[in-house]
Amino acid sequence: MKIRSVKGNLCKIKDEVVVLGFFEGKKSLSKKVLEINSSMDSLIKKVISTGDFKGKYNQKKLLYAVKGITSKRILLAGLGKEKEFTLDKLRGVIAGCAQSVCNTGIKSFSVPVSFAEKMKKDTKDRVCAIVEGAVLGLYKFDQYKSKNKDSNNNEIKQITLVAETEKELKEVKREVKKAETVCEAVCLARDLVSSPGNTATPTYLANRAKSVARESRLACRIIDEKGAKKLKMGAFLSVAQGSDQPARFIVLEHKPRRAQSFKTVVIVGKAITFDSGGISLKPPENMQEMKTDMSGGAAAIAVLKACSKLDIPVHVVGLIPATENMPSGKAIKPGDVVKSMSGKTIEIISTDAEGRLILADALTYSKRFKPDAVIDMATLTGACIIALGNDVSAIMGNSNEIIDKIKASSEKTGEKVWPLPLWEEYGELIKSDIADLKNVGGRAAGTITAGYFLKEFAGDLPWVHIDIAGTAWTNKDKPYVPKGASGVCVRLLVNMLENWK
Q: What predicted TM-score, i.e. pTM, was given to this entire model?
């Protein structure tokens, strides 16, 4: 799909559809819409005055243009109440319009940059939201479906953003390019998460990381099991030992091309390419979704790709420990004790609490980069879904500064987060009678005790953990997240790194 930017008058834009936004309850039309309305013999005003279109959020009305308008159709898009309209709602309404146009078989549409013009946001933010809404809302993962003549092959070929001045056009072109780069990264993460476990093995993930590195000028190192043994990654390898698929520890590195000193941020992503639960076997219901347990790792690869493409002025390192968690005669068992890379010993209470084991060694490994910040992402606990549902990720850590940065980016990107505490009392729940720690603290505060476990390995590093168990996958269509993998945290962390100070 091509996204182009032009300067022009909406009345003279030649396209299949021009999309116009209207707030609910507003009787007066903007100056630009009045011009179109006049050219259409007041058709827009008539539709609104009759009550056929009220501007309710995501309401749509397709009108066929009359003489005086170059485009064939006008799509009226409801924005809801002006006071409640946000950048995230802008993404959602554009996604809805794109999907509606696509479903009719129409191949292109135009959107004015001034869409929702009374919204007090910079052109940069508007353009970013429009592009993200359209591209992410139209995402499909259908590469495993047989193609036939009865398949719905409707596809948008082109989207045009219409600017008013040459100055605005230059800014729009710049921001479109950046937004497309971020969307491309989100779609990469969605593709990786959506791929079945028999395809997306640790080796596959490592090979994809190598490919991304070549395309994006990233440094890449793949540590195999022999290398992990030399590094004494006992916690990571203990999870891998039950699988016939060899584990891979992926290291990606973005160094800004401009020669000066930069901060170093390490992004850690959990990549359990399939999680059966191990000996502590999961119930069979919905186990097919456990291919998504590598969502953190997929997001980390995607973030590194975007950082390089955008040449973000931060030294960013991606650490992706990748393995399956399978039951076998070789698998770890409840009651076993393993020794982590840090030297701390861990009593295994549940083999289904494996994500924190591989992250423990990744956090220890991150210390060699002397980072200014470490952020890990993981589909870590079902308890997070009980606490926060499927629309909010949990954040916790030892650095309020990093937490505040993430919260600020959350406001911009619409990827909701909510902080949870890591008070010392929670540490009592993961004390072991026979080892330094145990990997499960019981049912109480399950998300927090998992975070506290990771805190023991982060040590003095400025560190934040993001639990994306509820947000990495959706079982229903959301405005710009079609049913399936969400690619959560990619836009969030790219925005945070772009604005790092």
A: 0.96
